Amino acid sequence: MITLQVYDSPDMAQLLADFTGRCTPRASTNLHGFAALDCSSIPVTPDEAFSIYDWPGTPHCIVSDGAATVVWEGRLEDVKISSDSVSLGGLGYWRALGDAPYTSLWSRTGTAEWRQGTDADVSLFAPERWELDNNNRLYFAPRKNEQFSNNSTRGAWAFLAPYNGAQDIAEVIFSYSFNLPVDWKVVLRSHTEGFGGATTEYTFTSTGVLASGSQTVTLAAARRIVTFECFNATGGTVTFTGNTGTSYAKITSIRVKSVTSATVLASAIAAALVTYANGINADQISASGALIAATTTDLNDEVYEDELPADILDDLALLHGYEVGVWEDRRLHFRAKGSAGRQWYINVTRILELQRSLENVRNSAYALYRDANGRVLRTAVADDAVSQKRLALVRRGFVSAQTTSQTEAEAHRAAYLSDRADFQVRANIEFEVVEDGLGNDYPLYVIRSGDTVTMRNLPPTLSGSVDNIRTFRVGETEYDGDKMNLSPESPVPTLVTLTAQRARG
Amino acid sequence: MTARIIKITDGTDTVDFEDASSGYTLLAFRPAVAQYDRDNPEVWRREDEQLEISVEGSTPTEMSQRLHLLAELIDRAGRMMRSEAVDPVVFQYRIDDSLLTNPLQSLVTGPPESGDVLMLPAAFDGYTQLKVGTVDDPVVWRLRRRGAWLGDEESQSEAAATANNPGVMSVTFGSATSILSPVELALALDVAMGASASAMLLLAKSSAHIDIVEAEDGVYSSADWADAADANASNGNVARYTPGSTDVELVQCSVTMDADVRQVAVVANLKNRSATINYYVRAVVNEGQGRWYYIDSSNNNPQAISLGVIRTKDAITVVEIQVQADATGSSANSLDVDTVAATAVDDGVGRVIALPELSAATFTIDPALLDEPRPLVYESAAQAYRGNVYLMQIGTGFAAVLLGNTGTTWRLRDDKAAAITVGMTATRRPAYVAPR
């Protein structure tokens, strides 16, 4: 049998209450780990009810089995009392990743978010004397007949990291093409908030001939603002007599990062989010990043402003075909989908309903992304040939990937296609017993989201349209001490309900 | 020849059907027989009882007071079960010619699940003011009680010894209980326990249903395992796994377990010595595989970890501990396994209880089925635990292993870091589903 105990905190130093036998907890799991715990109408005295209502802190709930291992674990969020009963509602520690929004730069490419520097930013800036544009480049060209003071009257483009973000700019990568008069300069400078404390991080001095190349500039210290500036450094005031555009500085292929590693990885972002959430509420999410599996895709455009870590992690997991959540010990996992699940087998006792639908099937897909100028681009179409042959039909969809990287967009396309290529099946099926591969039966609550379930006794001669329910990965479970409801992992909610009720006796 | 005893009392007020002067006469009573309920921590389902009685007094007032007491006792029982400060109400019953010296007892928990506590006769107004209720038209008194009838307490002890730290402790009672019966367990520890002492308590039906073995006595899967001396460990040694690869490696530990056992809970006492390498650990018994548990590098103290319940179709002679590191490393990054314990959990007795803090000389777990609404777990004050503390016993035996550590050190120790002695006293009340 299962037990339910409530503690003052996850370190379980103080037991607040043992509700074993006083209620039947309904515990659920989903793709994010332990999901919800519901204990309704526990009979108590009025004094006890108010004492429970007044529990300090955020109590920790554990449902355990006969080996004192965790069946469900989470935090107590909802308490409802009446004069003779109390109802408790718990949620898994995935919730901790929704406690505080997160703001930070990680990587940004393109020029769309650069703006012209003005004399309100730095008194040296004089945009009116320059022709400046950021159409797919940062462009500086001194205007004909304008006067340019030495080291002053600069043209400038500025990039500002999110205000009060967790990370500032650490590195700027760019390509350049400079065709400037002798001793004119292009510099990259970094600034604190408000354009204070300017530090020159890179300097190019023209020799009067066209120069081009690429640079990776690591800032001496991470800073909130960087500027590219172009100016006369000949030693005296110069009137530019050439035609506008004959001298210019062009900066392209810009990437601004908050890390100095060559790549920006989802696994690094996940680890940083764990550290961030733990730093705010150390009791709610473990600081351990040990269950975060390394990714390899370089993410070019990841800037988060006031976004919840939970939402960020969901997007990153979807992009990589990963699963993300929190199980025991409040430890976040971020890893390949299904890599830690167990395999279970069930025998169907009754099929109440089985229905298939074409509605959400997409066996051909492309992804939308954008170039540095914001123009919408489309990847090539990818096809699931097996699904197209089975259905004798091509159904094409698209997914919007918020990126300028074709590689990233193609990863989104692959994930979209993988989720939607098969028939969506609606079913209501009953079963009684859960077994492992060798026929040992287990209590129903062992099944968790992420495990794989195979229904052994469906007719083998059935068409492939039932293959996606014969064996499926569990998306959600709900166990009430007597009955287990399963739903498969699916891009649309609850298509298949599998219900098991333990045999009596 | 023993006389029948049938009374309900809270120690102050008593309804005694065998005392003619009490004014209560039992006219008809069919005792309920409790059913076994595996999801009920009390094991035996609570039952409603219905007694058909008559009530009389020497005066109308006395009769009325006696009638009222019937309702009042049930009210007190219900309030006690809601943790109000009232004494428990106990139903005592011994049949005629019973072999028992004392009556069996069952705690009254309050009103019946449905219906009234007291139903007066249909012709109540027609009775004399001194007596109410007849065989044909009785007063009906209804109550709810805990399912099992409980006999007298019987205690057996195993003396405290360092060999029990850890080791199998067991007692044998003089007679066998035929059904699951509540048992109170008092662990004898040390008056000066060391700081941060914690343990896993494994319980079993008998010493044949539980075992604890030294991991270094097991069979290793590769040369990455070796015996390592550790003066603080049980028996002075541990099984040390140095991660030469990230493959799954194992140690096979021979256990002695009753041949009929098919489900065991496994607890391993282990320590991750690395600050960087993390390990997955699981138990395997015959073909049954447990879930992988994560032992991360943030905790380098010894930990007794429950590896879950493993099921198998064959007799159990070996428990495998499988480990997998997430990186390779030197012996300084090893995973040490000191002891492995297993207990049968397919008999209603066996279980594991986590005790996160041990600090006083005696640790007691008392199901308190005759006294309290819920079990008592305490040292000098209420203690934290995790698991099912409605302890049960069946047959003649009862066994336990207390597998614990103290802070950074293997085994339970006092405040001078010396390994303590551990003993236990088991006090059971034999349970019966039918009165006798």
Short overview:
Chain A is mainly beta. In chain A, 12% of the residues lie in helices and 45% in strands. Chain A has six helices and 34 strands.
SSE topology sketch:
The complex is a heterodimer of chains A (about 500) and B (about 425).
Chain A: E1 3-7, E2 15-18, E3 26-30, E4 33-43, H1 46-53, E5 60-64, E6 70-81, E7 85-91, E8 102-109, E9 115-116, E10 130-133, E11 138-142, E12 147-148, E13 155-160, E14 169-179, E15 184-192, E16 196-205, E17 211-223, E18 225-232, E19 238-239, E20 248-257, H2 266-280, E21 302-307, H3 309-320, E22 322-326, E23 332-336, E24 343-357, E25 364-370, E26 376-378, E27 382-383, H4 385-391, E28 396-400, H5 406-420, E29 424-435, E30 441-442, E31 452-455, H6 467-470, E32 471-479, E33 483-488, E34 496-501
Parallel strand pairs in A: 24-31, 25-28, 29-34
Antiparallel strand pairs in A: 1-2, 1-5, 3-4, 3-32, 4-7, 5-6, 6-7, 8-20, 8-21, 9-13, 10-11, 11-20, 12-19, 13-18, 14-17, 14-20, 15-16, 15-18, 22-23, 24-29, 25-26, 25-27, 29-30, 31-32, 32-33, 33-34
Helix pairs in contact in A: 2-3
Chain B: E1 5-9, E2 14-16, E3 24-29, E4 47-56, H1 60-81, E5 90-94, E6 104-110, E7 118-119, E8 131-132, E9 139-145, E10 149-150, E11 154-161, E12 169-188, E13 197-204, E14 210-214, E15 219-220, E16 225-229, E17 237-241, E18 248-254, E19 263-272, E20 279-285, E21 288-289, E22 293-295, E23 303-311, E24 318-325, E25 335-344, E26 351-358, E27 362-366, E28 376-378, E29 392-406, E30 409-410, E31 422-428, E32 431-432
